[in-house]
Design goal:
single chain, Ubiquitin-like (UB roll), about 10% helix, Beta-grasp_dom_sf, Mopterin_synth/thiamin_S_b, globular, about 100 residues, about 30% strand, ubl conjugation pathway
Length: about 100
C-alpha cells in the first residue's frame, strides 16, 4: 500500500526545487522521513550541486538551519528522521538561512 504525503519548501528552499513550494509525493507504507528526504532529492532537486543546501554533509539528514515540521509540529517531538509517515502528512521544510 502507498501513502500520499505533502512536502512544503519555504524560506527560499523552493528555489532549489524548481520554484515549487508544495509537492505531493507517493511513498510506500512504512516509509520514514529519512526515506522521504531521499525521494525528494531524487525526484525534485534541480541541480545535484545544491544537495548541500538541503541535506547535511553525509546526505542522510537535514542541514542545520532548516526547520522541519510534521503536521505543524516540530519534528524533534515526532522522532525526526525515524518518524514513520502517515497518509496525508504534511512535512514542511523552512530555511532560516537567507542570503543578503
Amino acid at each position: 500500500m502507498s501513502l500520499s504525503v505533502s512536502a512544503e519548501f519555504l524560506g527560499g528552499l523552493d528555489q532549489i526545487f524548481g520554484k515549487v513550494r508544495q509537492s505531493t509525493l507517493t511513498v510506500p507504507e512504512g516509509s520514514t522521513i529519512k526515506d522521504l528526504l531521499q525521494l525528494i532529492v531524487q525526484q525534485h532537486l534541480e541541480n545535484p550541486k545544491d544537495i548541500c543546501m538541503f541535506l547535511d554533509d553525509d546526505n542522510e539528514g537535514i542541514r542545520a538551519g532548516i526547520l522541519v515540521l510534521i503536521n505543524d509540529v516540530d519534528w524533534e517531538l515526532e522522532g525526526e528522521l525515524e518518524y514513520e509517515l502517515e497518509h496525508k502528512d504534511v512535512v514542511t521544510f523552512t530555511s532560516t538561512l537567507h542570503g543578503g
